[in-house]
Amino acid sequence: QKEVEQNSGPLSVPEGAIASLNCTYSDRGSQSFFWYRQYSGKSPELIMSIYSNGDKEDGRFTAQLNKASQYVSLLIRDSQPSDSATYLCAGITSTSGTYKYIFGTGTRLKVLA
Amino acid sequence: EADIYQTPRYLVIGTGKKITLECSQTMGHDKMYWYQQDPGMELHLIHYSYGVNSTEKGDLSSESTVSRIRTEHFPLTLESARPSHTSQYLCASSLWGEQYFGPGTRLTVT
């Protein structure tokens, strides 16, 4: 089992809809989570970070963290074709004092005009 | 905006050559990382560093080495390039959690 898992997709949504991207993690010691967006041929860029249970909103993006169920999600409201990209979930674990940064494999999102 | 630079951006080189990929950041970040990524595929961690004179191997063994003599500089060296090293190499830095990526180096080994 991968430490951070994502469905590879593609996830296709119509323009204007809400896109929901999910990520699960295996290490209960994981504390902090990050969402990155990567356009084809480009480097990943940070969208949001979330550290505590609940929702965190930033513009059209909402990150959700549920530590009891060990999942993180990213909601994109009013999806635009320009949101079409691969979205990477990442988490930090610090088990036994060892700091480890783990990326998921990414979910490809297609927003259809 | 993050200031992290990679050179060269593109490199085509023959098998057996020694190459060094450069990565520099001006943000004073302690942590730096090297990733390898093929088109449409996941990121693979090659090496990382949590500070000067500290380097560790990641999950992917790529027959490469790194050094961290200065905070801002984290070069990656391939002693003998092979066609299997053909890929995109991404450098990143962070202060704690958020990683900032450079533009990448596209390496082709012929």
What structural category arises from helix and sheet content of chain B? mainly beta
The portion of residues forming beta strands of chain A comes to: over 45%
How far apart are the first and last residues' alpha carbons of chain B, in Å? 36 Å
Order of helices and strands of chain B: EEEEEEEEEEE
Estimated radius of gyration of chain A: 14 Å
Kindly state the number of beta strands of chain B: 11
Biggest sheet features of chain A? 6 strands, mixed
Helix content class of chain B: under 10%
Radius of gyration of chain B: 13 Å
Q: What's the total number of strands of chain A?
A: 11
Question: From the structure provided, what is the oligomeric state, counting identical versus distinct chains?
Answer: heterodimer
* Class of secondary structure makeup of chain A: mainly beta
Element order of chain A: H for helix, E for strand: EEEEEEEEEEE
Q: Please, how many helices of chain A?
A: 0
Percentage of β-strand residues of chain B: over 45%
Q: Helical element count of chain B? A: 0
Key terms:
heterodimer, A: 113 residues, six-stranded mixed β-sheet, five-stranded antiparallel β-sheet, B: seven-stranded mixed β-sheet, four-stranded antiparallel β-sheet, 11 strands
Protein architecture, described:
The complex is a heterodimer of chains A (113) and B (110). With 113 residues, chain A is mainly β. Chain A has strands at residues 4-6, 11-14, 19-25, 32-38, 45-50, 54-58, 61-66, 71-76, 85-95, 98-103, 107-112. Chain A is globular. Chain B has 110 residues and is mainly beta. In chain B, 0% of the residues lie in helices and 50% in strands. Chain B has strands at residues 4-7, 10-13, 19-25, 31-37, 44-51, 54-57, 64-66, 76-78, 87-94, 100-101, 105-109. In chain B, strands 2, 4, 5, 6, 9, 10 and 11 form a seven-stranded mixed β-sheet that branches. In chain B, strands 1-3-8-7 form a four-stranded antiparallel β-sheet, with no helix packed on it. In chain B, strand 9 and strand 10 form a beta hairpin. Chain B is globular and about 35 Å long. Chain A binds chain B through residues 32, 34, 36, 40-41, 43-46, 49, 88, 90, 92, 99, 101, 103-106, and chain B through 33, 39-40, 42-43, 45, 48, 50, 90, 94, 97-104.
